[in-house]
Amino acid sequence: MMFAHGFGCDQTMWEPVARNFERDFRIVLFDYVGHGRSDLSVYSAEHYSNLQAYADDLVGIGRALELQDAVFVGHSVSAMIGALATLRSPGMFSDLVMVGPSPRYIDDEGYRGGFSREQIEELLEFLADNHRGWSAAMAPAIMGNSDRPELSARLENSFCSTDPEIARDFARVTFLSDNRSDLASVAARTLVLQCSNDIIAPVEVGEYVHATLPRSEYRLLEATGHCPNLSAPEEVTTAIRDFV
Description:
This protein is of the alpha/beta class. It has one domain: Alpha/Beta hydrolase fold, catalytic domain (Rossmann fold), CATH 3.40.50. It has eleven helices and six strands. The chain has a six-stranded parallel β-sheet, with helices on both faces. β3 (70-75), α3 and β4 (93-99) form a beta-alpha-beta unit. α4 (117-129) packs antiparallel against α7 (164-175) and α5 (131-143) runs antiparallel to α6. The protein is globular, with a radius of gyration of 16 Å.
């Protein structure tokens, strides 16, 4: 079972959930290039200019570990990276768990992504101009759960520990991506886990992903915010265990 982190995070964000599966699965945790304890020297903005590059790295890890019919659990942008990986290497992952997925963050005709193009550009400009200020402002909004400030503090620290230029690049790749056309080709059985009151991936987005994927189940969590792996690890664990 492979767990993949979201934007500005690292593999430690999945530890509260992943440890619950250690008895039944071989667990794989990793950091994308540019995040956590990865080798920053191999990062190239040109190479990592699209989500497919991250998906190719994921496939590379899977091949090195000889994964076959594994379970992939991806948070946020990693949900789409996992989908792309299954298209690149069919059979590597038999099951996908998408936590707070979004194939497109920008609203389009007949589609609600949650943001206008102008809002995304303002968000990216803010991040480029003031990385620490962006982290301090966005972490509480993304995490939600205002009654538990320690959660947003953890997310803010994770954001701040990411190299500012890499964070800027990955944010642009993430928030300007459009993977709607890829969903219909995903053959893996998929669980869509949708949080309540998620400002990054609204309920309509999770419902769209579920409706578009050929073999999906949908579960609306009681957890609020965009990071249930931290705010509600028990509920996420139960949902995944029921699925696999």
